[in-house]
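Researcher: Here's my situation. A collaborator sent me these components and asked whether they could plausibly form a single complex. I don't have experimental data yet, so a predicted model of the whole assembly would be a useful starting point for our discussion.
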Amino acid sequence: MEIAKTYNSAQAEQTWYKYWLDNKFFKSTPDHRTPYTIVIPPPNVTGVLHMGHMLNNTIQDVLIRRARMLGFNACWVPGTDHASIATEAKVVALLKEQGINKADLSREDFLKHAWGWKEKYGGIILEQLKKLGASCDWDRTRFTMDEPLSEAVIDVFIDLYNKGNIYRGVRMVNWDPQGLTAVSDEEVIHKEAQSKLVYVKYKIEGAEEFMTVATTRPETIMGDTAICVNPTDERYTHLKGKNVIVPVVNRVVPIIFDEYVDKEFGTGTLKVTPAHDINDFNLGQKHKLQTIDVLNPNGTISEAAGAYVGMDRFACRKQIIKDLEEQGLVSKIEEIKNKVGYSERTNAVIEPRLSMQWFLKMENVSKPALENVLNGEIKLIPDKFINTYKHWMENVHDWCISRQLWWGQRIPAWYDDKGNTVVAKTKEEAIVQLRIKNAELTTESVKQDEDVLDTWFSSWLWPITVFDPAVIRNGKENANEDLKYYYPTNDLVTAPEILFFWVARMAIAGYEWMGEKPFTNVYLTGIVRDKLGRKMSKSLGNSPDPLDLIEKYGADGVRVGMLLCSPAGNDLMFDESYCEQGRNFANKVWNAFRLIAGFEVGSDAVQSDAQKAAITWFENKLSEQLEIINDHYSKYRMSDALMTTYKLVWDDFCAWYLEAIKPDFIDGKAQPIDKATYDATIGYLESLLKIMHPWMPFITEEIWHLIKERDTKDCIIVAEWPTVKSNLDKKQLAEFEVSKELVAMVRNVRAQKQLSPKEKLEVIEKSEATRSYFDNTIIKLANLSAFSYTKEKVEGAFSFQIKTTEFYIPLAMTLNKEDEIERLTKELDYNKGFLKSVQIKLSNEKFVANAKPEVIEVERKKESDALSKIKTLEEQLSVLG
RNA sequence: GGGAGAUUAGCUCAGCUGGUUCAGAGCACCUGCCUUACAAGCAGGGGGUCACAGGUUCGAACCCUGUAUCUCCCACCA
């Protein structure tokens, strides 16, 4: 068999993904096994695969593949999110390119375009996930706007409305003038900005006095309906009951007094613009002020302003400063730093704006979602996020759930022309309900709310509705088989940025409609950053295209690369060199396989002691490391699990085991290997492939099938995860470590060309490694089993066979007696000190009273260990005199 | 302003109850090797006042108190 020297990943990726799909290895249906379920955080349907997805989905795939191998009924549900704002923006932009204006289209026509777009491009990201190797149950692919899922969203709205948790009200919302919609607080990104603080003079009515008011938003002056000062501010107490004249529009407004105003900031006066600032709005409510909205939805100045009408808000700001300056009404302009809110979706500057919106009262529904995270029913990994979560949940605001868009689930609220409102699933039902309130109702006058619901208002149901969208109206006791079997899911892997948007809300929904948590573990990944610590983003252009990376390093290489640098909950500083490391690892594995594939089993070949020792050792080593790997997995320490696997394969298997068992060359010809060694080696290779499989699905499947002919169903993807040996021989492992040191030292000495063979021998004899080797041997001579050591005695010396060269090491070590005494004394002193400390601890009443029994047990063990060690050392010292 | 977390080798990070796993790993770097699985490799090597200053302790990377720097979240002052 001719095997290429370097591993060709692209080919394996194509072959195996299709093979797995065809054989339905990803498919899951309820059966007698325990389920292990993950629902994908649905990527935006507009999305293309970026580094964040890669990280996220690789972790999910690793978890699901391992669960599958552990014998669980593994189900990973894929899907996409309709992402109302992002998608609508994209479709609007696309239509614009075609010369179509959204405003000219009817709602129905626009939605037709949007659906068309979704059908055409909506599946791209899922196809990309397949390239990565994602082993989702693709038959279960869902979309948050699938008919049944949308219906569930409407059911939920109606249910919450009937429970009295949804209300409609005029509120200050974050208005996105570009997207022409309200966005939630969480979708506003505050960025530090350099702003001008303009000091504007307001004339006091009936006096030649002016009041100076500092503002960063002079364009809202036309909306001023009061000036506010702190009642304790002595500078202004004489102005009680006075009015001022607002510049530009010459409106007379009162001076009001409120504790809210900070005396120290600016001039200690605040212009109150209730329509354009949340705090001003609150002040306006409190002091019953008039509200004048000077901005149009698109951010231009409105008719109500009475000046600068139609001008853009930023242009107006510049112009108004100029005009005020000309009128001598600007006393000074300061440069200050403040925070400006930007829309996460469109990056437009957010405008606080009054509008009629639908809200969900959070206080009634959010309690269980908080309690069950605090009591550990739902685990956040890493748990440092619990505090953040708690803080948010305790201060949660009502959720504005309406969006002024067309793409999404339309709010099932209906109005008649008399101002009555009802909530109903269909127009027919709405008419019935409205008739009760309005006897003269005509069918034509019934109008549905124009707005749609926030995207998160559908995705918060995701872990429920992907299985059974009808459960909301049927009730949880009538859930279908799927939901009963798969819910609650096991793990959720997502980014901490959407802990509140999504995770918290899913928890709320889970308890509200299922009475149970939606997931047990929430693994929060970090944010993928570049080497300089900047967030990877399209606009910065610092994000590599994941598909290019796959092409360059192979999917396995990229997967390994991503996870090598991603400790849970920490951001990861991504660098392509990690992928290179991943690819190199894949190649290493490939070559280990090449070596083994080249072995020829000879019927006459006998197993050497070295081979025997190596086999025993590796069996222990494999078990020992597997136990560690399992432990890392159980704590979701993915990078550690991977690194342990990496070192097990590279260092232990390739560098030591294979080197030890590989047959010698005689006359340029590789010797045959005995069957026992060969079989053991194949067995180890198979175990290692299984352990590697979750990380590197393609290469492991490829090699799995190249090792021997297998049945079509005998794939590594469904192979059984190896088990840990119960009787681990720790002593043997420790002894082998000593041998390794010796071998390394001998190799090193051998390589020193300037030394003669005799000199080399001397160096070896005197080396620390040899001494420590014999230290061990003297104590446990009978147990010696170093792989490179053979038992024959040559004239009072042991013969060490290390590769092709032999070294003779005298049995009686000529150690320097003084040195040895010094060493032993030092060690003895240390142990005595250690013993003393343990004993102090154990005699400490407070410690004994407070410590757990196990902790005391550990201390007692330390004490007895130290005692026996001291005894041994004293014996050794007495022998030396 | 409120809260959370971090600071250990050039980089990314481990280090669990304070001590015989205590200063570690991987990568990068340096030196020597194209040796018969692998140069995408092998063998060796250098490198850290554990951010700083105090304290507690027989003993501190680890506990306490300050300081500095960074990151994130929440709120936000015109």
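Model: Some features of this prediction you could bring to your collaborator: The CA atoms of residues 190 and 341 of chain A lie 4 Å apart. The two ends of chain A are 65 Å apart (CA to CA).
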